[in-house]
Amino acid sequence: MIEARPSVEALVRYVAPLEGRRGLLRLDFNENTLGPSPRVLEAIRALPAEAYSTYPEYAGLEAAYAQAIGVERSQLAVFNGADAAIRAVFDAFGKPGGVFLTTRPTFGYYQPCALIAGMVVRSVPYAADLSFPWAAFRAELSLGPDICFVCNPNNPTSTLVDAAQLLALAREYPRTLFVVDEIYEPFTGQSVLPAATALPNTLALRSLSKATGLAALRIGFACGSAALVDRVFRVTGPYDINAFAVVAAHAALEDTAHTDAYLAEVAAAKAWTLTELERLGLRYFHQGGNYLLVWPGKDVTEVEAGLRAQGILVRSMAGKPLIDGSFRLSVGSLAQMRRFCHALRSVLAR
């Protein structure tokens, strides 16, 4: 067998358990459970035959999203989901033997991308109360890592950091590339943008997967100074995003009323769910995002299986330091959360 380079041979493949989820209530991967704007479906159906045989164009989408978030078009680039933007950051700036810094637990795709680039990974654990580990993180930053990722709010803990504090940190350590993963920003309003575009070492990642419900179509963005964005975009393919995704993204961005209604529904459903968890006497943690952690008080693997038997998916955090014994719960509509709580009560009563 022909071997890959050493960093790949030593890698454990990143696999998300995404199979067999159709037809179930998906409260496991923080997806939009209500679907995108009807305008998205209309726009895709209206595509003429010529669109199928023509390479897609991206300039209009980049301009539309730049206007929506208050930056210049040169200060962002579109990617095949935020995951592709993450990989592009390491392809552009990751150096063999360089140091990558992040927190733990956090989004699982950062580490394999760093390892593929041949980097040394250093991760700082969140505090016992799941607050951001400022002192330990600063200590690591003082050693001069090459790249630093902060997921805000953090997945899976939901820990939320004030954007001004992250910007101050980036200014304090200008030799480190700061990447702030903001794909859950629509649920919090906390963003380093547009201020980050004035910094030479800061990028923000965004996505249309969550609030606008385009997870299957894969639309993400990297936003920052024009120089940084240019370097990240240099390592991508010329036609990485398909025409269906581009058309869908335009339609989703135009229907702000639909997105706003979804965000309001999630906020109301989350508040109701927290009240129900209080009534059940269960420990939970939440700060930002459309998800939270729940400790069911019994074997979480059994609880996850019991909920699945009733057609409801949650994501077990079994074995993960600090959050072992919990499951991550995505927040859907109020009706969906009522269904979840009813099922949870029956599982816990067994």
SSE map:
Blueprint: H1 6-9, E1 25-26, H2 38-45, H3 49-52, H4 59-69, E2 76-79, H5 82-93, E3 99-104, H6 110-116, E4 120-125, H7 134-141, E5 147-151, H8 163-172, E6 177-181, E7 202-207, E8 220-224, H9 226-234, H10 243-254, H11 256-280, E9 283-285, E10 291-295, H12 300-309, E11 312-313, E12 315-316, E13 327-330, H13 334-348
Shape: globular
Assign the CATH superfamily of the largest domain: Type I PLP-dependent aspartate aminotransferase-like (Major domain)
Compute the number of strand runs.
13
Q: Which architecture of the largest domain does the CATH hierarchy give at level 2?
A: 3-Layer(aba) Sandwich
Structural class: alpha/beta
Side by side, the strands of the main sheet go 2-8-7-6-5-3-4
CATH topology of the largest domain: Aspartate Aminotransferase, domain 2
Major sheet? 7 strands, mixed
What are the low-pLDDT stretches, counting only 5+ consecutive residues below 50?
none
Estimate the helix proportion, in percent.
25-40%
Number of helices: 13
Structure description:
This protein has helices at about 5-10, 40-45, 50, 60-70, 80-95, 110-115, 135-140, 165-170, 225-235, 245-255, 255-280, 300-310, 335-350; strands at about 25, 75-80, 100-105, 120-125, 145-150, 175-180, 200-205, 220-225, 285, 290-295, 310-315, 315, 325-330. With about 350 residues, it is an alpha/beta fold. It has a seven-stranded mixed β-sheet, with helices on both faces. The model has no long low-confidence stretch (mean pLDDT about 95).
Summarize the structure.
The protein is an alpha/beta fold and 350 residues long. The protein has helices at residues 6-9, 38-45, 49-52, 59-69, 82-93, 110-116, 134-141, 163-172, 226-234, 243-254, 256-280, 300-309, 334-348; strands at 25-26, 76-79, 99-104, 120-125, 147-151, 177-181, 202-207, 220-224, 283-285, 291-295, 312-313, 315-316, 327-330.
